[in-house]
Amino acid sequence: MVAPVLQKAVREVLKSLSPGSTMVAADLGCSSGPNTLLVISEVMSTIGAYVQETADDSRAMEVQFFLNDLPGNDFNLVFRSLEPQLRSSLFAAEEEKAVPAPCYITGLPGSMYTRIFPCQSVHLFDSSHCLIWRSKVPEDELVSGGRMVLTFAGRKRGEMPMHGGVARVWELLSEALRHLVQEGRIEKKKLRSFNMPYYAPSLDEVTQLIKHNDLFDLEDIKLFESIWDAHDDSDGDVVIDCSSSAESIAKIIRAGIEPLIVNHFGKDILDELFMVYVSILAKDLEKGKAMCPVIVVMLKKSKH
Amino acid sequence: MVAPVLQKAVREVLKSLSPGSTMVAADLGCSSGPNTLLVISEVMSTIGAYVQETADDSRAMEVQFFLNDLPGNDFNLVFRSLEPQLRSSLFAAEEEKAVPAPCYITGLPGSMYTRIFPCQSVHLFDSSHCLIWRSKVPEDELVSGGRMVLTFAGRKRGEMPMHGGVARVWELLSEALRHLVQEGRIEKKKLRSFNMPYYAPSLDEVTQLIKHNDLFDLEDIKLFESIWDAHDDSDGDVVIDCSSSAESIAKIIRAGIEPLIVNHFGKDILDELFMVYVSILAKDLEKGKAMCPVIVVMLKKSKH
């Protein structure tokens, strides 16, 4: 559901570039797992298709791609997966019809809370489920007319802020925390002072914010339902293996908020908390699959 | 001895930039040791001094710095040393008189045998003792008028190719290899087919090559004598602790050629070879310190 929006953004950028120029793209919060290179792969195959359609060789261009994450990210792992023999499999599809453009991949360590690029140096930003941690959009770094594709959890029209697919998994986590309070493993007042800096906006809220902000034109916005457990590709609403599904959802949640938990409650309770969480989640999944409404927006930096 | 040449190159680049632009610099073969960030530090303090001298605030600029090495390099280590608290100590000198320009540091994995930058995107290349592995100068990647500072081992005027400071350490390594042949650890014909792809040119040879090549103007060239054992800062020509000096030189040599040795002789003989090498080297150091003639050149990409 995100891919068509990203493809559209790449095409818009390509149209705006003068022949022979370099397209600069960046993935904010790239992490170091099997999905890290998906965005590059998507961008490159879109360029391939575009070049073929337009049959315009004079547009021979190059792509400089920045993979950004915190300095503690395992960039070594990412870079090793770029070694020639592996790289060719990444670009296998393009290899067949000749690589559409040379792609130079770099690693950019740094917090998105700070400036990480020179002024007006990037044509395309992509950020998937990471923007919740960013307080400031990277508008200075984007060229005028450049595109941003942002993907984040949202809530469906008519749902209250603390209801719906995202709220459900957080509600169950707070249940697990309350359980640890009852067991005397967490102090009651510790729990009371814990605040999850998380808000799942609706399409309308996002649309209004962007219009109000005036820095970007909203070119596309979509909400779709994504299943929390990405390993579950069964049809229907029934979860076939609740405990394995619970384990896989708990991993996603833990990857996202472990630092917050450790910072507030200490790391001693981590394993216990997530064990309790998995069992509460597994029981809840008997009611049906856990879905998360996801919003994807495509923004264009206004020319003023 | 390299620093003044690098400073001069940075100044030339700064002069050529239009106000408010971004300077793109790259260190080819940055490795991941304590020296990795020295080049960035030198570039940034030169910019600081330049900005102060010219007192030209309209030149407010940014620096994008690419650290390049093979994908197997420990970039995680490098990136962690860039975390805010450490970074500020790196730029301590500039911190006092305010940082001269925002510096965005990225990691660029890739072999220098391939293209690693978009066309005409770099203003300054620096490469210290790594260019011996490169078959092709990165002329395409350099902007017209851009600068390259290259540092590599050379030989003094009047010395024969296989004599002098560089040849001495290789000659002793070949002695160690011959010792292993005598011990039956290496086959005689294996040694005979081993070829060290290493050549220490003289100033005249380098100068002629550059003039003949016609892609670059030679703006500066110097030869100086550097001591192989960088830990030895004693005066005079006598080595005070021959075995510790031999150990430290052997480490440098091993870091440089271990892959070649492993590739040709297998890795089983590695430790033994370097143990023998250290003892031969220690004995040889009784004659006096091992010095290496080093050449540093500053090139400007011709405008045609």
Shape of chain A: elongated
Task: Tell me which CATH architecture of the largest domain in chain A applies here.
Answer: 3-Layer(aba) Sandwich
Please write the string of helix (H) and strand (E) elements of chain A. HEHEHHHEEEHHHEHHE
Low-confidence stretches of chain A: none
Helix content of chain A: 40-55%
Total count of helical runs of at least 4 residues of chain A: 10
Give the overall average pLDDT of chain A: 88
**How many strand segments of chain A?**
7
Report on the biggest sheet of chain A.
Answer: 7 strands, mixed
Per DSSP, what share of the residues of chain A sits in E-state strands of 2 or more residues?
A: 15-25%
User: Which structural class matches the secondary elements of chain A?
Assistant: alpha/beta
Distance between the termini of chain A: 31 Å
Strand numbers in spatial order across the main sheet of chain A: 3-2-1-4-5-7-6
Biggest interface, residues from each chain: A-B, 30 and 30 residues
The CATH topology name of the largest domain in chain A reads Rossmann fold
Please write the CATH class name of the largest domain in chain A. Alpha Beta
**Quaternary structure state of the chains depicted:** homodimer
Rounded Rg of chain A: 21 Å
- Please, what is the CATH homologous superfamily of the largest domain in chain A? Vaccinia Virus protein VP39
Family (chains A, B): Belongs to the methyltransferase superfamily. Type-7 methyltransferase family. SABATH subfamily.
GO molecular function (chains A, B): metal ion binding; methyltransferase activity
Keywords (chains A, B): Magnesium, Metal-binding
Pfam families (chains A, B): Methyltransf_7
